[in-house]
Design brief:
- About 30% of the residues are buried.
- By secondary structure, the protein is α+β, with helices and mostly antiparallel strands.
- It has helices spanning about 30-40, 50-55, 65-80, 80-85, 110-125, 130-145, 155-180, 185-200, 205-215, 220-240, 245-255; strands at about 5, 10-15, 20, 45, 90-95, 95-100, 105-110.
Length: about 260
């Protein structure tokens, strides 16, 4: 049986394509956060104090142990049906630690996005002849990384995961832009590279790809304008200028 856990978008647990635990069953933000963190750290037991700091990132109330026990009990109840137990899904506890035990082949979207980006970048470096070796995993990564992560919940760990997803999204879009250029689809490269520039206006890699894409599509003037836009942003906001690589692309455009 296939077990899939979605921690982006709606937090859900599926077994063979059927929803076994729906987001609304976690009954609020803290329940979603508890499950998400334990699933993300599934390779190890998590101390209860660590969990408490994730769930209550500000000052913890004096009654946090009671509140955490209630959340743990509720999560155990969600994972208690025989269908889930038989698949090896369980929340164990010992010595003040909690461990969400899942089968080794459980698919989790946060893990899948990292694997997909790594595979796409590896296929690019290898220069394989099959574009789908890049386009397939990169498209999967973009689809996952674009989903919201724990909407309405704040905290240092949540924010760090959101930043990580954004980096994965940028890397995946870079892969798509690069492959579109390689296979002679500059208009698609312009589309994807434009998205990366919008996501991070200070990221030179995005501008470099977009300059190449405009040039390949026959719009050299827009590529030149893009360089000047980058130079102005870097000078105004960071007090610096474009890198040597960007300058080389610009010089090539002028020639």
């Amino acid at each position: 049986m296939e077990i899939r856990i979605y921690l982006t978008g709606r937090v859900t647990l599926e077994v063979d394509g059927n929803v076994a635990v729906h987001e609304h069953q976690f009954r609020g933000k803290q329940g979603r956060l508890l499950f998400t963190y334990l699933a993300s750290e599934r390779t190890r037991p998590v101390p209860r104090e660590e969990l408490a700091k994730i769930i209550w990132p500000g000052e913890m109330a004096l009654s946090w142990e009671v509140a955490l026990s209630a959340l743990i009990s509720r999560l155990r109840g969600l994972l208690s049906p025989d269908g889930l137990k038989n698949q090896g899904i369980a929340l164990s506890s010992s010595f003040g630690q909690y461990h969400l035990r899942l089968p080794k082949d459980t698919w989790i979207d946060l893990e899948a996005v990292t694997s997909a980006v790594d595979n796409a970048e590896g296929a690019l470096r290898s220069g394989g002849a099959d574009p789908q070796g890049v386009l397939g995993p990169a498209t999967v990564a973009v689809s996952i990384a674009r989903r919201p992560f724990l909407s309405g919940i704040e905290g240092e760990w949540v924010e760090s995961q959101r930043r990580k997803l954004e980096r994965q999204l940028l890397r995946a879009l870079d892969c798509l832009s690069t492959m579109w250029l390689r296979i002679g689809e500059p208009s698609l490269a312009v589309e994807t590279a434009t998205q990366t520039v919008a996501l991070d206006p200070f990221r030179e890699r995005s501008y470099q790809l977009l300059m190449h894409a405009y040039d390949a599509s026959g719009n050299k003037a827009e590529a030149v304008r893009l360089y000047h836009r980058l130079a102005e942003i870097l000078a105004a906001e960071l007090g610096t200028g474009p890198s040597a690589k960007t300058e080389a692309i610009y010089s090539g455009l002028l020639r």
